Amino acid sequence: MSIRRHIGIAAALVSSAIAGTTLSVGAAHADATTLYVNNSPTAHCSDAGTGAQAQPYCTVQAAADAAQPGQTVQIAEGAGTYAEQVTVTHSGTPGHPITFQGLPDTDKLPTAQVGVVGGHGFSLSKVHDVTIQGLAFNTAQEAVLVADSDRIVVDGNTLLGAGSAKAAGIRLTGATTASTVSRNRIGASGGAGIAVDPGVTGTVVTTNALTSNIGGGIVVTDAPGTVVTSNTVAENCGTGVSLTGASSGAVIENNIITATGPTTIRCPQAGPVEFVVSAGSVTGTKADYNVVHPGTGVNAGSQAYSWAGTVYTSPAAFTAATGQGAHDVDTDPGFNLGGNSNDDVTPQRDTNALDSADAGAPGELTTDLLGNQRVDDPLVDNTGTGTATYYDRGAIERQNPFAVGLSWDWNNRIPAGHPLDKAFLGIVYSPWSKATATIDFGDGTGPQPFTPSQVVHTYPGPGTYRAVLSATDGLGNTKTSTTNITVDPVGPLSAPTISAVQNSNYGPTHVELYATVTSPWPLVSTTVDFGDGSGTVVRNGSANGIPHEYPHVGTYTATATFVDDHGRSLTYSQQVRVDGWTRSGTPVTGRWDGRASTHVGVFYSGMWSLATTNDNSGRVNTVYFGQSGDVPVTGSWDGGHDQLGIYRDGVFALRHDDTSVTTVSFGAPGDVPVPALWDGNGHAQLAVYRPSTNTFAVRHDDGSVSTATLGQQGDLPIVGDWDGVGHAQLGIARPDRQWGGTNTFALRHDDGTITTATYGAVGDFPVTGDWQGRGRTTFGIYRPQAATFSLSNAYAGVSDSVFAIITTF
What we know:
Layout: E1 34-37, H1 60-66, E2 72-75, E3 81-82, E4 86-88, E5 98-102, E6 113-114, E7 122-125, E8 128-133, E9 136-137, E10 144-147, E11 150-155, E12 158-160, E13 170-173, E14 180-182, E15 185-187, E16 194-196, E17 204-206, E18 209-211, E19 218-221, E20 227-229, E21 232-234, E22 241-244, E23 251-253, E24 256-258, E25 273-277, E26 286-288, E27 291-293, E28 303-307, E29 310-312, H2 315-322, E30 403-408, E31 421-429, E32 436-440, E33 448-449, E34 454-458, E35 463-472, E36 478-487, E37 494-502, E38 510-518, E39 523-529, E40 536-540, E41 543-549, E42 554-564, E43 569-578, E44 586-590, E45 599-604, E46 607-611, E47 620-624, E48 631-635, E49 643-648, E50 651-655, E51 661-665, E52 672-673, E53 687-690, E54 695-699, E55 705-709, E56 716-720, E57 729-734, E58 743-748, E59 754-759, E60 765-769, E61 778-783, E62 788-791, E63 801-804
C-alpha cells in the first residue's frame, strides 16, 4: 500500500449563510492587527493603554472592548489566571473575525486561564464573526456561552471542570447560527460537555474530546442542521451523543462513542443508550462511520443505539432496521482511560477505528485535536472513503510512532583502563518502516552508522561533547536525539600499595608479595625489588602474590615500579617485615599411637608437641627432632602407626621408632612435602608438591615417579583418603586472602571428580585426618593466632572438634 500524507494546512469549517439578521458591528478594520493582554507583574500592563506589546492590557475585557474586525487579542499566560468573565459586544466581519487567542506551551496546550467563580469565561450575545481559541477554563457556569450570535468559532480550548454547577462546558443557545465548536478538550463538566439548545441551527461540532462529563457528551435539542463529526466521546455519564426534539437534517459521522472506562466517576444514573436520535430528528439525518462501543465501564449495561425510539444493541441490528450506520463498528479503541477529566483518548492499539473514516464528511478537518496532519498507517488496511481513505475516526489521528532516543550509560559499564571511552545507549523505534541511523559523537569524527544498542566510543581527550543520533525512516521522516557527555582529564597513577603475606607452609621466611596501583590506563608491568639484593621480578600488569624467600628474618624495603600503556610510571617503596615461623608453630597430624583416629600436633624449631586426644584435655607428648627452618612431615615409614620426619632443601629425614633416621633425596628446595599411603600397601610413600607448576610428584616403592597437576598459584596441597579406599588422593586448599574470606577445600577422587567445601577463615592453615576413626579422611584448620584447631566432623555426623593445644614454646 502506498504511504500518503495529507498536507493541507486546515479544512474550512462548515458554515451556513447568514441572512436577515441584524447584528452589532464595530469599525470595518483596525489599524493594529494584534492587541496584547498580559497581567504578569513584570509586563507593566494597563487597561488605559492601547494594548501594545510594550504595555499590554491587564484584562481580557479591556481588549474585548477595544477589538475591531480582523484583530487578534493575544492572551499571554501572565499571572496564570484572568479572574474575569469576558463579555464580548464587538463583532468581526465575514473573513475578518475578532480572535481571542491564548499562547500554547510546548505540548500545544493552553497556558492562559480565563474565568471567574460563579460566572462564565466568555459570554457572547448578539455578535458575529468571533473566534475563541487556545484558552483554558475552569468555571462554575458554562466556560463559553454563545447566545443569538452567528459565525462563532470555539476552537482548541481546554475545559476541565467548567460548568461544574450542572452547566455545560460549552453552550450554544437562542438563535445562534453557523457556528463551530472544534478541537476542544472538555472534561468533568457538571452538565453536558457541549450543549446545542433549541433554536440553534447549522452548528458544526467536530474533532472534540469529551470525557467524564456528568450530563453526557454532546446534547443537541431542537437544533436542526447540526453536524457532529470526528469527536471522541468517552466514559461520560448519560448518553454519549444525543439528538432530541426536532433536530432533523443532522450528520453524525466518524465519531468514537464509548462508555468503556473505570468506575471511579460518580454518575447520578447510568445512561441507557450511547447514541440517541429521537423520532423528530431522523428526517434527513445521516449516521455512518461511527464507533459505538457501550462497553462495561461507567455505563455498564447500556445499549448502543436508540433511533426513533427503538433500541438496537449492535451496529448490525441498527443497520438492518434503519439502513443507517452501514460502516459503524463496535470495537474497543483501547483508550488509556483513568476516570479523569483529561484522559488520553489516543487509540492505543490497531482497531477498526483506524484508517476507516469518511474523509468527505461535513465538518471533517485535515488536522486532529492536537493539530496533527492526517497520516496513513501502513500496518492498517485503508477502509475509509472520501478524498482520502486513511483518516482515523475520532478526535485524534494516530501518528507515526517513529522515535529515537540517545543517552550515555549512567551505569558506566566501561572496563577499567579506558578513561576516554564512553558508552551510549541508543534506541530507534520505527514500526511503520525500516529506519537507518547514524551517530555523531561530536568530536570531529563525523557521523557513523549506528545499530540500536549500546555503543562505545573513544574520545581524543577530555572535554564536553554533544553526541547526536539521527535516524530516517522509510517514509522520509528524520528524527534526532542529542546528549551532552563530559570526558574528564585522565588522572595519574595513584594509591600504590605493597604488602607481604607470610606463608610458613613454604618455609620460615617465605612471603607472597602484592604490589597494586590505581591506573586510569591499562597497567603494562610491575617491577618488584624485594630489597634483599636478590634482584628484581617483572610481572605483566600488577603483582599479585609473587612468591619470595627472604634470606633471614628482618625488615626490608620493597620497591615497585608501575608502568601503564601510555608510558607513564610510578615508583613506590614500602617496608615489609619478615618474622619467620610464628610462635604458634606449624600444624602436624598423624596416628601417633596406632589407633584408628588421627590426632594433631604442632612443630616449632625442632620441638614437636603431639596431642593424644582431639579435645582440651591438655594431654601432649613432646619430642625433639629437626631444627628451625625444617618442614615437618609424618607418615607410616615402617607400617602401622605414624612416625615423624622433616623435609629440608629437597631431602627427607625419616625418624623410625628406634630413633634411627633414614634420609632420602626427593624434590627440590621450595617443594612442599606430602608423603601419604599412595600405594595402599600399609606404609607411606614420599611425595612433593611443586607450587610453581601446581604439580604433585609421588615416589613409589619400585622407584618410579608419577605426577599429576591440580590447583593454581597460591593453592596449598592437601592429601588424604577421601574415599575410604585404603590409599591417598590429591587435594588443594585455596586460601581467600580477602578480609572476611573463607578457605576452599577441593578434594579429587579416584574417578576424577572433585568435591569442594569451605571451612575456616583468612590466615588459617589446612589440616587433614580421620578425626573420628571412620576409615576416610576429612579436613580441618589450625588457627595460629590462638594455636587452635577446628576439625570438621560432618563426615561422621557429629559436632566439630574445636580446641587449643598446649605447648611450651
